[in-house]
Design goal:
CATH topology of the largest domain: Four Helix Bundle (Hemerythrin (Met), subunit A)
Order of helices and strands: HHHHHHHHHHHH
Oligomer: single chain
Number of domains: 2
Strand content: under 5%
CATH architecture of the largest domain: Up-down Bundle
Distance between the termini: 26 Å
Length: 349
Amino acid sequence: MRGIGPERPALVQAVKAALAAVLAWLAAAQLFDLAQPFLAPWAAVFIVEATVYRSLRSAGQQVAAVGIAVLLAALVEAVVPWQVLGMAVAVLAGLLIGQGRWFGDSGPWIGITALLLITWGTVTQSTLLVDRLIETVLGVAVGLAVNALVFPPVYGVRAQKVTWRLASDMAELLEEMAEALRGDVLPDGTESWTRRASEALVLVRQAEHTIELSRESRRLNVRQPAFLFRTPHDERQAILIGLRSTWPYIAEIAQTLRTTAGRVRPFDSPDSASLKAFATLLDRMAAVVRLRAEGTGSKAKFECVLDQTRAALDDITDRLQDTRSFGPATGLAGMVLPARHALRELTAA
């Protein structure tokens, strides 16, 4: 099972972080003529977040964290006479203060920044302490500007691809089970079906994450007006909810097929005609899954295939009612019920 790789977005963000670091250093050193402006590129790198909204939120946290670190370093230097002990106190106090949720991911850097200020001997010089704050604000501003103006991240296409991949894996599993049912003997590798259905949870979580990023990336994004999503966000969210709710029933079908293949009483395998009819149902369910992932663009075709799938399900239900042997009826019912539930979830939203 393959996911959608994050390599390209990660590369773009890494290049932007490098650009922000260089620009922040040049601005601090050349434009403002600040001495040793190491905090400017430091802050700029951490501001280049996954979305512009997160960059803005991180900006306030970063400035607050550095401001606290500067004050902490000055206080420790004034109170603690020995540098080694002061380093320990600064790190301990900084890490504890950084636990506050309002600092976010910047919290741990309070102790580290205070430690750097003490070890570099700049704490006793009030001018340099002010410079540290200026550097931080400058770096934050540069990082925020770079992330907002240079290819601001959007995740609409990526969220769409992850959802498609999830639907594709589900459809492939349904088709594989259908192909096996058309044979007289189920393959020995049926245990992989339940494993694959369980592994789909990884793709579900990935799809949920990218859809959340897609929604968040639209906030404060200058690219948004010109960026068109093929599938609206709300519809894509509904598609994911349907697919996520369907997977457990697909896993249940796979488990029942595995059990009936092993002739574990009372789950005896249904007759060959019933298995082939159920294979037709699985193929049509696979088509429904693929069309569902495409959204409203294929609504007419989706309704047509859905009617065919319901007809196939009704056919299996009639066969189940005509089955007089308890064992085969139990195995068939163990597949029909989750299939009915899966179809309901696919059409609920």
